[in-house]
User: What shape does this take?
Amino acid sequence: MAMFSFDFIRDNFTFILSALPVTLLITVLSLIFSTLAGGVLAWVLIRNVPYVKYLVRAFISFGRSVPMLVMLYFVFYVWPWITSDLLGGPQDTPFSYKLSPLVAAVAAFSVVFSAYFAETFRSAWNAVEKGQREAAWSIGLTGFTQFRRIIFPQAAVSALPNYTSVLIDLIKDTSLVYTITVVDVMAKANIAAARGFHYVEAYCIVLIIYIALCLVLTRILRHIEVYLSNRWKSHARKVVPSHSFWGKKYVQK
Assistant: This one.
């Protein structure tokens, strides 16, 4: 029976860690695209756009219902066959429409997590009291000015805890991309472990890497949350009601 090998961890930690840029690249790209898409989806729901809102709700339900591993397999293995049948010519094969592993991973994560971010943004918007928007209209602020100076500062603070949780889930789910041949941290761990069947030690290295990565990002986002909260409080003192919210006049100090 093989004993736990600290020598293996020492000798292979750098090798496994060398794949971290791939994991970070997938995380960053997926975060950007899913955040932008989630913002658009949330806007449609908030504005209650006729007809389109039903499609958005269906998309969000779809994104939240499909397991991440199934979505990765669908985008990488199934999507080329569907595209080939629908759009392909006589000479085309599914391989003509197959996405690269990295692109497929980013696309799959963007679809799934845009649904979660949409709900995060929508709930943050609803957390801002309706009375503040009505007060902003009453003093003649434009829609963009309302969003920039009143709604966004409060909604951002409200959204960040949930946003952080979804981001952490995204990072953890990147450990699945090795199943579609992306050479990430998990793939490098399997390669290293196969050399001497030291899978326990290899997965301990992966555990350490993911814990450290999540803790660092959580700390960064926590500082951003505190900064925005303090900035909003400072800004809020500049815009105060002359009487109460229902008073007819707000004054700018």
Notes: The chain is about 75% helix and 0% strand. The mean pLDDT is 86. The two ends are 75 Å apart (CA to CA). The first helix runs from residue 6 to 17.
